[in-house]
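Loading example: each entry is read as three labelled lines plus one structure line.
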Amino acid sequence: MSDMTLRQWLLTDAPTSRRHARLASLYKGWLSLRSNTMAMFGLGILVALLLMAFLAPILAPHDPYAQDLANRLLPLGTEGHVLGTDSLGRDILSRLIHGSRITLYIVTLVALIAPLAGLLVGTIAGYTGGWADVVLMRITDIFLAFPRLVLALAFVAALGAGIENAVLAISLTAWPPYARIARAETLTIRSSDYISAVRLQGANPIRIITKHIWPLCISSLIVRVTLDMAGIILAAAGLGFLGLGAQPPSPEWGAMISEGRRFILDHWWVATMPGLAIFTVSLAFNLLGDGLRDVLDPKDGGQ
Amino acid sequence: MALTEDKGERHPRAPLAPWLRGTLVTLGSISVTMLGLLLVTFVIGRVMPIDPVLAIVGERASQSTYDAVYEQLGLDKPIIVQFLYYLGDVVRGDFGMSLLNARPVSEDIARVFPATLELATLGTLIGVFLGVPLGVIAAVRRGSWIDQIARVVALVGYSMPIFWLGLMGLLIFYGILGWVGGPGRLDIFYQDIVPSRTGMILLDSAIAGEWGVFRNAFSHIVLPASLLGYYSLAYISRMTRSFMLEQMSAEYVTTARVKGMSERAVIWGHAFKNIRVQLITVIALSYANLLEGSVLTEIIFSWPGIGSYITTALLSADMNAVLGGTVVIGLIFICLNIFSDLLYKVFDPRSK
Amino acid sequence: MNAMNRLLSGAVLGLAVALTAPMSAAWAETPPNMLVIANRIDDITTLDPAESFEFAGSDVSRNVYMKLVNFDPANLDAGYQPEIAESWTVSDDGKTITFTIREGLTFHSGNPVTAADVEFSLRRAVILNKTPAFILTQFGFTAENVEETIVADGNTVTITTDKPYATSFVLNCLTSTIGGIVDMKTVMENEVDGDMGNTWLKTNSAGSGAYKLVSWKPNESVTLEANPDFYLGAPNMERVIVRHVQESASQRLLLERGDIDVARNLNPEDIAGAAEAEGVKIYDELRGRLMYLAFSQKHPELSKPEVRQAMKYLVDYQGMQDSFLSGQYTIHQNFLPRTFLGAVDENPFTYDVEKAKELLAAAGVPEGLEIEAGVREAQERIEIAQTYQNALAQVGIKLNITVGTAKQILARYRARELDVYIGAWGPDYPDPHTNAGTFAYNPDNSDEAQATGLLAWRNSWDTGGLTEKTAAAVVENDRDKRVEMYAEIQSQFRETSPFAIMFQKIEQAAMRENVENLNLGGATTAVSYWPVTK
């Protein structure tokens, strides 16, 4: 198939198979996303971030852990250290580049764990109804009513500081909204004729939930996840800032701000550079999420 | 966000009046949620590897001092018994004593919560008065430059690490320009002038007619409140925009336009009127989030609020303080939810 | 990326302009009769002298409570001086000290200070048995025997110890916070459930010192008011307000703008910056706190003598002192802080990777050894940890750093779970035994002993004979001989102990130029506000 015919095949009004239809709608979504400059800008930044993380050892001019106490707190634009050096004389640029791996790692894990947990709880509650629904939703309420940072802090304090525990803690605070979304979607889907038909064919509940309900919940979850990414990054940085995230000498961006804030008055770049990095990435996620929302469910009010 | 949406349940024997039943169900769900909240916090407190006894007696204490405090805290009893004791106290309104500063937790909360309330209220006001019009205009002029600017303003707000913005704001507006007051709620020589009635200094000084204190308090609160206000603005304006978009594409708007109604009347008289309830829910949610206490803002601005209170307590194993603070915040959260649910029921024509 | 670039350069430009702009706004000023201090006071948990044990608490206590003997802020080196006790005599067997109480002193309440108050205060501290009680109970006082061992008679008070301790040791201990004399009448009026007024005194004061407590708001402020009847004359500063300000940057901004008079927690970079600000001066004082590394002797590798030595050669003492610790810590490798009785000044260890490698090779340490270090959430300690981690990496040892809150790390340290601990130790009372008795004293090294207060025990170190020498030094009444004994103990300790003592603290207080005579307390005591003028 040439490019032209592929495009036509994707843009057809009469899909020939279920796969064809799905691909076609994805492509249409992509086209409409592509026309959104800001979303593409966000996507561009994220692709750059991915590349940066992937090529970190090649891109970084220095070893991110190499200390040099004699050359600490060098200003921006110093030869060999474009973004200066930190309190222990480590190259800030190299640390930022390597830190992108940690950021991606945290974001990816949370973005997998929290929505999945929420999806599971929400669909089970929504589909089964009755007391299971009451119990599950009550638990969701309890976690929602919890002050989020307290919950995360308590969790990290209980299990010990570290990236993995920070990821779990953030997931723990992030899942309840997904559960609510998934439950709401399930409630509307459950009573649809299509599900009744499947049920009449004798499909068991597990199959109905995983094969028929989950796929329909995914799109609203994806939008929500993308919009939450920035929050996740900021939460991780906040934990790092409080010393409960990544452990030294790891170049986690939040921890870098925390280290640099002591010099904020005279050596402002030490905290500002990781601050800008966090800002850029969360902005990128927000731009993309905003665009995705327009594409995937244009009427969505976020509720 | 509704807490009382379990309408799927069937109660075959329900001779109670519907309103009474509704109230009972609501009260029941509040107490279950609160109980769960308490239990989770309590368990976290007990499994944390921070030793509350050590937190009290410190590094140098002898073993006999340690043991005495251990017993005094009731830690030698089974955890269930400890929880029941605690529960009994809470029901009687007694949150116990803070392990670390030897005061009743309720007294501490009465001191720190108004500080957060003041900050969150001002922040929310800023968010509402700027965010709502911004959201409406962005929706009406969808795709225009003003929409784009509103989008960028909001997304930048979502994306900025607050601790960085806070420090920079402090440096520039206080340290260099001297336009606003520094960290803390008041300058030293304005302290203890106004008697504390509400704990909110702006309100207290206005009641007492001490306008010097009022001005000083305002100069201190304006920067942190603007920061929080910016976040709240970001959220509220985005939400307003999407609610409005939904309304603007509705049939009745087209009809009204066709009928020759002025654009202003269509927007404010019809569309905006219809999103009021949704909007209040969003504002309530954003308010609740600020009331949780923005820990980082509070730390940076030396603001003695509930967020930093709970955090400090948590990190030093002062579990009574953590439990007390969590209960208060949980209660507020739940109340705000119920409040917006009620609004839905009262105003939303569809639910009648 | 264009927009981002513009945003970035805009931000940088804006900042650059902002940072170089002249400080045009008018200076604020604190009232002339008021001293306003920014300090971290979140460690205060109680202000009862029988219970208070933290830095910020002893700052309050020193100005509120008088003691039998005390330090003169104008001449700390002179050692303890008479205060409530006008004079004292020691019995021939060296076990009994009789204090004569000064006439004409009054408490803030107006009640006279009597021998009965002294008796009550000391007995109370022993009976309550709170954290700092060990400072008194180490002399053999117990709740059961105080009726015989601490006795008032007329205007004298007699205390009888179980052994003939060095008199200087006993009196030095009485200068610490727990020696504060409280107003018996006022305290007992506020007794609840037989707590000897403990609950009330946590948040109130009943002393006779230069200041009385107006209020303590946890994590917010402590306010003191001058006592016009103070026996040395009414203090100049009628009010002293200590405000809790966590961030160094915030403290510096407040100071530079004149909203406070003194900032006590500026980091080296902010000190350097503040020193250049108009109207600000920096004042240095050597304090008693030591920064040290400790190595668990339960660890099969760390317990080898060569490894203990090697570890001490892997600390970049000079590098750290000259960089991120600049001006705030000075190299000191002995457990007695400088200015203490018996302190020595020998610092033989330097950063020497080659030597460490040789020692490790001789000990047969396997390649790729991994050990865990616990450090609490305090930036300078984390940086020390990272510097050390970097040095260990050069000899093929991987140091995993676990950062936690003070209490988390401490709990594991006390449970003997950490391989390496990076921490600080401050003397409890101004006598050499306070540090000797914890670094070099461990009579029972078994797990069951639970001597969690002893640093030697926490690191499972049996001290190799130093325990006996320490016990002997504390009952030696000849001052010169005592000094000699501590010199010997420290010399052996330096070479054999699993402790690498690195630095002694220098407190740098930044203050407005008009603040005079603020003494922070040196290595031996706490801050005194009464001599301060503005």
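Chain B touches chain A through 59 residues (CB under 8 Å).
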